[in-house]
Amino acid sequence: MTRARFWIAPALLGLALGGCGLRPLYSGGGDGRVAGLLTHVEVAPIEGKSGWLVANAVRDRLAAGGNGVAAYRLEIKLDDKIIGLGVNNNDVVTRERRTLRARYQLIDLSNGAIVVDATAGSDAGIDVVSSEYATVAAEQTALERLSGIVADQIVARVALYAERTTPRTK
């Protein structure tokens, strides 16, 4: 009896979600329409170390299905900041926050139109310790993590654009 109850709720949930039109964003896998558009996006160079990290992370996520002729260009501008938050009795910073924000535009190369204009961002807390090397390493690790998070947000938004605008094939 307990097993029957266990399977009833997921079955009903599956029926309800199927009826609402919910469908996978990457349906069709590498041959799907979203993946097809993502392979035709080139990433413009971005200045600085954080730019290099974000650009490579975005390229890695876009090129998962292969390489095509560019139909879109993704332009990204970054704002990377570290601010001190915690201060002890000796006026020494003990906690930092690293913030990485991106403003990006997806440009249709056929007509120069901006089809996506959005922002992405994330932040990370960093403990400042007595070892300067450890603190610098923590700041670098935070930047690498944030670059991946921001790249995921950018690619997800571009994929959503692809889903909404690319014609369906049967």
What's the helix and strand layout?
Elements: H1 2-19, H2 33-38, E1 41-43, H3 48-62, E2 72-87, E3 93-108, E4 114-127, H4 132-165
Parallel strand pairs: 1-2
Antiparallel strand pairs: 2-3, 3-4
Helix pairs in contact: 3-4
Explain what the structure shows.
Helix 3 packs across helix 4. The mean pLDDT is 84. The protein has a 4-stranded mixed beta sheet with strand order 1-2-3-4. It has 170 residues and is an alpha+beta fold. Helices cover 43% and strands 29% of the residues. It is flat and about 65 Å long.
Concise structural overview:
The protein is an alpha+beta fold and 170 residues long. Helix content is 43%, strand content 29%. Strands 1-2-3-4 form a 4-stranded mixed beta sheet.
Number of strands: 4
Catalogue the unreliable spans.
none
Summed up, the helix count is 4
Radius of gyration from the alpha-carbon trace, in angstroms: 21 Å
* Mean pLDDT, all residues: 84
Multimeric state? single chain
Task: Report the portion of residues in β strands.
Answer: 25-35%
Task: List the secondary-structure elements in sequence, H or E.
Answer: HHEHEEEH
Distance between the termini: 42 Å
**Overall morphology:** flat
Structural class, please?
alpha+beta
Largest sheet: 4 strands, mixed
Helical percentage: 40-55%
In the sheet with the most strands, the strands line up as 1-2-3-4
